[in-house]
Amino acid sequence: MKYMMFVCSDSEPDPDPAAEPDIHLWVSENDAQGRRLDGNVLAPTSAATTVRVRNGELLVSDGPFTETKEVILGYDLLECADLDEAIEVARTHPMARAGRIELRPVSALPDRPGD
Question: What Pfam families does this protein's entry cite (predicted)?
């Protein structure tokens, strides 16, 4: 099962002074196990562009749509047997301590009615 793992900042990181895990080691281990299919760091929110259409009019604005201190910093697409395995993979990511990790199952786009 595929899971999208959003790597996010957090205003309350773990205060534990233990050494943070190495992100490059995390990536290479999960790539080697076939659990990480893709992933990358995102540009800062200052580079974001928000696109909306309202009443047929295109609205484009700089920056993220929401005002928040916590932002999505990156992503990883995982292939795991189940949610328990995805949680274990997320638990070992360095940002699970410095930030937060959000996991979501990837679902197929529903068929169009009549197809």
Answer: YCII
pLDDT per residue as tens, the chain (115 positions): 999 999 999 988 888 878 778 999 999 999 999 999 999 999 988 898 989 999 999 999 887 656 667 889 999 999 999 999 999 999 999 999 999 999 999 998 888 887 6
Those residues whose C-beta lies under 8 Å from the C-beta of residue 86, and which sit 6 or more positions away, are 1, 3, 5, 78, 80, 103
Considering the entire predicted model, what is its pTM?
A: 0.84
Domain 2-14+21-105, CATH: 3.30.70.1060
